Amino acid sequence: MIIRSVERARFALPLARALDTGGGTHRAREGFVLRVRDGDGRVGLGEATPLPSQGTESMDECDAQLGASGRALIGQTFEGAADLEALLDGVRDRPASRCGLETALLDLLGQARGRPVAELLSRALPGAVPVNALLTSAEPDEVRARVAEGFRTLKLKVGVGALADDVARVAAVHRAAGPDIALRLDANGAWSLEQARAALTALAEVAPIALCEQPVAGLDDLAALANGASIPLAADELLAQPDVAQAVIARRAAAALILKPMVLGGALPALALANLARAAGIGAIATTALDGSIARATAWHLAFALPGPTPACGLATGALLKSDLGPDAMAIVGGRAPRPTAPGLGARITAPLDWRSA
């Protein structure tokens, strides 16, 4: 397969409601859509949506990288997923750019072979994957609505304000959701080690917590907290640094890894990390980074390729956006995402975009 052209277009997607996290407040997501065409006229789609607060490049760095890499790809050939590592070798330190480029090439490859991207990543796919819902508030109406939609795992951001507020919000969510719904927390590294110890103890007293993502920012603190923690911990932002990600696994500093293709450089690096984690007895959860529809499709395919039993993955984030690049490739029903069946990524673009050549 030969690459004939590479185009990109910039976009900005406002959130339906500002989302407060321990890492800051998000009101919109900005990024680039990629359109890569092969010699047979097939078009592969990719999305590069930087998130510098979680270790990716900036928008300007991403724009420059996509331009340079796009020009370098024209005329190149590839026949399989293994060839992508060599094609994208120079993009290792630009994870969002690499994710967008890799996704577009995997989309092309899947279309050429008549297989979904998930089947290019793994041969043994489950029939469906459970999905968690990210709450934007602790309001009982929102909680009950997500439960009524079939979600059995709810996720709530903490660490934004006072601990007493977090305790009250977690208690309110637990009351509204009921005892059969699993509750996850995400602090985005907002707490110090001592704050995290106090917070996890207090929160565990008001509700059973299935998992707390990135309660502290540093590896040493996470490893110390994991030793005897009352709540299972997950590593998220730390994974943006490959050497630190390896150390999280080696030190058993978390019970699970939160894998965001946009932050890790694409589905292939994320899957490689998941395989290492599984060999060490550590779980893996695929999730988005509040991305557009194309990147959400990437996380969807990754979720089906993960090794071992798959916990609820963070794929149901499209409703957090006021506008989007296109419709969701996956239709989440009853809190579960169906197995991908369409060739390639299965995504399409309906938003008007201003395309330019690499």
3D structure, described in words:
The chain has 358 residues and is of the alpha/beta class. The chain has two domains: 3-114 and 351-357, Enolase-like, N-terminal domain (Enolase-like, domain 1); 120-338, TIM Barrel (Alpha-Beta Barrel), CATH 3.20.20. Helix content is 36%, strand content 22%. The strands form two sheets. Strands 4, 5, 6, 7, 8, 9, 10, 11 and 12 form a nine-stranded mixed β-sheet that branches. A four-stranded antiparallel β-sheet has the order 3-2-1-13. Strand 1 and strand 2 form a beta hairpin. Helix 5 (140-148) crosses helix 6 and helix 11 packs parallel to helix 12 (293-305). The chain is globular. The mean pLDDT is 95.
Query: Could you say what the CATH architecture of the largest domain is?
Result: Alpha-Beta Barrel
Q: What is the helix fraction of residues, given as a range? A: 25-40%
User: What is the H-and-E element order?
Assistant: EEEHHHHEHEHEHEHEHEHHEHEEE
Categorize the overall geometry.
globular
CATH homologous group name of the largest domain: Enolase-like C-terminal domain
Number of helices: 12
Mean pLDDT: 95
Low-confidence stretches: none
Structural class: alpha/beta
In CATH's first tier, which class of the largest domain applies? Alpha Beta
Strand content: 15-25%
**What count of domains describes the coordinates?**
2
Number of strands: 13
Measured between the Cα atoms of the first and last residue, the distance is: 19 Å
Write the CATH fold name of the largest domain. Answer: TIM Barrel
